[in-house]
Amino acid sequence: MTMRDFSTDHSALALNTASLGHNLDGHGAGWSPERVIDACAARGFGSIVFWRREIGSRAVEIGERVRAAGLSVAGLCRTPFLVGAEATDRQAVIDGAKASIDMAAGLGAAVLTIVVGGVHPGTKGTAESLKIVTDRVGEIAPYAAQRNVRLALEPLNPVYAGNRSCLVTLRDALDICDAVGAPSLGVAVDVYHVWWDRGIDVQMQRAGPERIFGYHLCDWLADTTDVLLDRGMMGDGVADLKAIRAGVEGAGYAGPCEVEIFSANNWWKRDPGAVLDVMVERFRTLC
Amino acid sequence: MTMRDFSTDHSALALNTASLGHNLDGHGAGWSPERVIDACAARGFGSIVFWRREIGSRAVEIGERVRAAGLSVAGLCRTPFLVGAEATDRQAVIDGAKASIDMAAGLGAAVLTIVVGGVHPGTKGTAESLKIVTDRVGEIAPYAAQRNVRLALEPLNPVYAGNRSCLVTLRDALDICDAVGAPSLGVAVDVYHVWWDRGIDVQMQRAGPERIFGYHLCDWLADTTDVLLDRGMMGDGVADLKAIRAGVEGAGYAGPCEVEIFSANNWWKRDPGAVLDVMVERFRTLC
């Protein structure tokens, strides 16, 4: 099998706007979506992934602006948590998820990411929480299909299992996909979250191209100082990026490669244009 | 299968002295090994696990002191890293590991724990590093057998994969055990590191009683503030302690349950005697 050659064509490159610090906690340069779109178009990015907080009521307008610039909206981050301390009211959770599906549909986003939330109050371990996730994903999947939005369950690094994602492996994500059985439901593979897992190749084969809805890039810094906001640029860490891409492409994935770097003390402090330039260079040579 | 009943007999309880802050970075009350031994004996602990820094050249003396108090030395923490940035000189690594085996033998410690170290310089991902671990463990295992010391490979939470332990799952630990094939080599199961892993029951069955050399207790705090020094006391977090113990005992383990709580801002600031009292109470009622 031949991997895609990004050195000659980097149109698979997608920007996740988190890499520019968007407006999270005041980080980043505060570029408008329009400015981000133009900067990505100028550098040959193929697509962009936004966060809900950047979109507000302008979903349709921003989606059209992206496509007018020759790009696509690869995704939207993300549903509110489906389980955990912030998600105790089932109906409110379902309603919130449906509202984010509506926003994704308005944007024309190919995929809506799901970060499921942590261990549910009153329970121990992840088993019960994953059952709740399965129930709630099963409830929203038909609505997503109606709106032509695909839902990507994203397992997070196990360090987040307590309060952000009781879903921590591709294996468990695919178990939920199997249980729900909806074509609109698949998984996102994020290097930051799975790089340590020696079982991912088997699971990516299990998923196949029809269930891998996204591939997220960054790097794991060996001496990371903060598990939330100290992600590395590709090449600066210890993840085996080529091997992981070989696995995901070997499983049939041929979609966008989305760079998502939360980096409060490094990349978010730099000029966004310069960050995008480095991203393109690293993507063409190291990913 | 019936689990052991700790409410009527807590002699399986072992103190890992890290829970009292030993002398790490100036934390803890600075109790001598002798004072720790007496405090554990007074409360019915069955055994103690020390760290090398506490032992120095007094291994034989301290071991005898423990046994004179009616306890045993359940283990010694730990070999120096076998791989990673601090372990580039193979012979120095082997020599250092053998010296820690000698210390364990002098103490009469049942088990010497191995935390393997992070991703090796010049490599990416964990595969190459795990091969180096396998080579080096294979080199020291016969020496450990000669000295009557069992070696326990301890997989750490994946958050440490970069710089502390490229070994992050029981599955990978048992793969190394299989590759080395030495009866002196097994695994340690630590709640903090494996609580999120839905594959552990299968792996504990695979390990069996002849390869599970230790079971470590603490809790994972849902909103942990520091992945190194903010472990929870049993019952304060979200790990399913009963379910994990059912798995480890279901696999045939009947050895010590070692409480190991790194907690710079909470338990290490309390009176060690009071900490031991809480530990006994939680162990008898919640573990």
Automatic annotation (TrEMBL), chains A, B:
Top-level lineage group: Bacteria
A Pfam family: AP_endonuc_2
Record keyword Isomerase present: yes
Keywords recorded for this protein, A-Z: Isomerase
UniProt keyword annotation of Cell membrane present: no
Residue ranges constituting the Xylose isomerase-like TIM barrel domain according to the UniProt record: 37-271
GO molecular function terms listed in the Swiss-Prot or TrEMBL record: isomerase activity
Record protein name field: Sugar phosphate isomerase/epimerase
Species the sequence originates in: Shinella granuli
